[in-house]
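Justification of resources, computational component.

The compute hours requested in this renewal are based largely on the per-chain cost of generating structure records like the one below. Each record pairs the submitted sequence with a full structure-token output. That output is archived, and it is also reused by downstream analysis tasks.
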Amino acid sequence: MANPNRVAVKQAVRRFTSSVSESGPWRAASPGEGARWLASLTVPWWIAGGWALDIFAGYQSRPHKDLDVGILRKDVLQALSFLPAWEVFEAKNGVLTRLGAGMRPRPDVFSLWCRPAHNSDWAMELMLDEAENEHWIYRRHRQIQLPFNIAIRRSPQGIPYLAPEIQLLYKSHRIRQQDQADFEHIAPQLDQRGRCWLRDALQSVEPAHSWLPVL
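The structure output for this chain reads:
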């Protein structure tokens, strides 16, 4: 039986890009590649997802099928203007919708799938984050915040990446096997501030969360 989400994605891509018959595979891009693609951006960006946790740990702990990159929603048009040769699609509920040049994503869209034009492989997923007064804001619970100078770190090579406590908070929402593995790998490496922040954040959004006894 066909996966309804995959069928929906295929239909959406056919609707908005008649030359492409299906969504296409993901290319396993690295943070270094992402840094080269985004080198000319003049707005903040950072590596997110599992790669952000591996940058924090200092080594790659598992294969990554894709590359997640965070940007601020308020900066999205400026960021996309530096990727004129890329195709960009909103990803929402298993459906991809092409985002035309100069178009702002809908308010309920938090993920943009991106690939170089005329390429069937997806290369980068842009994650849209919120901010206010120099603070990163958790969109599912806006009272949970962190100053940007703590929320965004830099690797020894100068690549910006999302703080591990924030990335684990994102992963705590709907835990997959890889999310649990990432938590077990990274939680013992958090410093006291990061561990306390993650514990307090989880208590705010889900007081009975399974990770709390470990924290």
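Confidence is low (pLDDT under 50) at residues 1-22. The chain has eight helices and ten strands.
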